[in-house]
């Protein structure tokens, strides 16, 4: 059996288990929708109070917000197994069971706990994108749709790479969650706003270290047809999401190093 059929069977089993308790799944999804909705209210309040911020309107920032939250929602659903690697697998010794199965380890973790509650954040992100379309008068041509889908794929890869790194940290310390949250939830917050609003050193971090700008800022400029105030050429947004895939490949390289360090519990 190929890798994808195995993955979909694991996802189906995970979703099926959650579907046994529909009320719980619905409430968790609603909680995700409302919880992240507070962030939308905060962004709206900022622009309602000050109007444009350095030439950026609420519709343009809504595009950033919608794209980033769609990326993170899907990556968070896929990467749950890496998120809980330290507490649910390494600390309990259950990781040995995964290693013994003749199945790709990464796919087992990605299909371990596919959380349908993340649909709440995804739906909210789509709703904000609809708002951005009308507020910023975005023309969704085949070219802009292609850029948005490429950015979405690159962003999913990037956030999944961050979750892989979080899981890798658990090979050294099972208390890695708070460290990784700086990159996951902190990264979501940072990528929701235009790169031009940040200090120079932080722009470099978001472009070259954790390339969130490459999957959100530059593609959004291409979609909006807006000139980059920082001077980047317009074609950058067409290719910059590739950085997300490069980041994911590098994260799996570090993951392999972590696996070499792992020592079985022997139980």
Summarize the structure.
This protein is an all-alpha fold. The chain has 16 helices and no strands.
The strand count comes to 0
Please tally the helical runs, counting DSSP H or I stretches of 4 or more residues: 16
> Shape, please?
globular
User: How does the helix and strand content classify structurally?
Assistant: mainly alpha
**Element order: H for helix, E for strand:** HHHHHHHHHHHHHHHH
Q: Indicate the proportion of strand residues.
A: under 5%
Element layout with pairings:
Elements: H1 3-19, H2 22-50, H3 58-78, H4 80-83, H5 85-90, H6 95-100, H7 105-112, H8 119-135, H9 142-169, H10 177-181, H11 185-191, H12 200-209, H13 212-215, H14 217-224, H15 236-239, H16 242-261
Keywords:
267 residues; mainly alpha
Describe this structure in words.
With 267 residues, the chain is an all-alpha fold. 73% of the residues lie in helices and 0% in strands. It contains 16 helices and no strands. The chain has helices at 3-19, 22-50, 58-78, 80-83, 85-90, 95-100, 105-112, 119-135, 142-169, 177-181, 185-191, 200-209, 212-215, 217-224, 236-239, 242-261. The radius of gyration is 19 Å and the shape is globular. The mean pLDDT is 83.
